[in-house]
Amino acid sequence: MRDAFLPFAVPWVTARERELVLEALDSGWITTGPKTLELARRIAERSGAAHAICVNSATGALHLALEALGIGPGDEVITSTWTFAATVNVIEHVRATPVLVDVEPDTLNLDPVAVAAAITPRTRAIITVDYAGHPCEYDSLHALAAKHGLRIIDDAAHALGARYRGRPVGSLADITAFSFYATKNLSTGEGGAAVTDDPALAERIQLLSLHGMSRDAWKRYSDTGSWYYEVVAPGWKYNLSDVLAAIGLGQLERFDEWQLRRRAIVERYRAGLAEVPEIGLPGARAHIEHAWHLFPIALDLDRLSIDRARFIQELRAENIGTSVHFIPIHRHPHFRDSLGLTPDRFPVAEHAYARAITLPLFPRMSDGDADDVIEAVRRVALAFRR
Ligand SMILES: Cc1ncc(COP(=O)(O)O)c(C=O)c1O
Fold first, then answer.
1. Ligand 1 and 192: CB distance under 6 A
2. Which of 181, 240, 325 to mutate to test the pocket of ligand 1 (most atoms within 8 A of CB)?
3. What is the pTM of this model?
4. 255-383 has which CATH code?
């Protein structure tokens, strides 16, 4: 058993991030400024979108996406029950109605058949969730969106760097939201971005992210000088600061290398756990490139004498940290009660929830760390084999 506890995710901040943060701190400009704009430019480039707006979280980006698309009371937005609460909270923030659907068993991504069945005349948008870094089935979802005149917002909190049929996540939806939360593949501590090809949507998101202040008001009223601005909508205060953007710029320099490292750890897990019949491993469909934000395994409970909670406890006793992604939305009291949801409507998510455990996966892990995880999982599986 390993001596030190291995958390399921640890950010990696190096001397380069420290250097860029100090540069921002010493520059005299510590709120939104050149570093935030530079991060936005690079995120747009990397994700194949024409425009990016950096904000304080993926939650903020998703909220502004709905606002920019004019989604509000009376509208329905279809999304997955297999996600973090933020995806659904934002639908409520704009007073629209969340319509939750079940997922596909292999990817735990939105099931296009379930989405089709949930469309009504009130449906305005679909929020896709590229779970763990695996893109959704965008061909099927776009066909549905085109047929019914729906917009697609991609919750790509896990999926920066992923691709679908060669196209980067960021270019697959009307608006895509990325998260730069502490444990994400690229982190600014807290942060996020909205990306889109549509200049009007980009402008609206930009405006709403900072009090609804029209940035180019000074251009139109040049005689009044740069002190002049106009508030053209009751916006929010969702901007990212240059101090945090500096962390992101440092992280971007090593992002590709880190993605390769994630892939190498995944391959190591695959090799080490392939022969453990109690453990199901996450797949990747042939036409996608996975971002490998998470490595969620599925226990075969028919082969084990313990449940998922106990399996997690046993791994904890082996000094291996894990998590569960996700507690399905329909199980949270707020959504269960306000939307009248019952588990029988989500058989795939229910089955997955009883079995899901997220193993540690972060670029800073050594091969030895990964081997410790493999050994611990094998030991627990063997000890409680039925
Ligand atoms: C699927 C999903 N969507 C949205 C979010 C929210 O991201 P943020 O913390 O940047 O708002 C998360 C965060 O973990 C997430 O996992």
1. yes
2. 181
3. 0.97
4. 3.90.1150.10
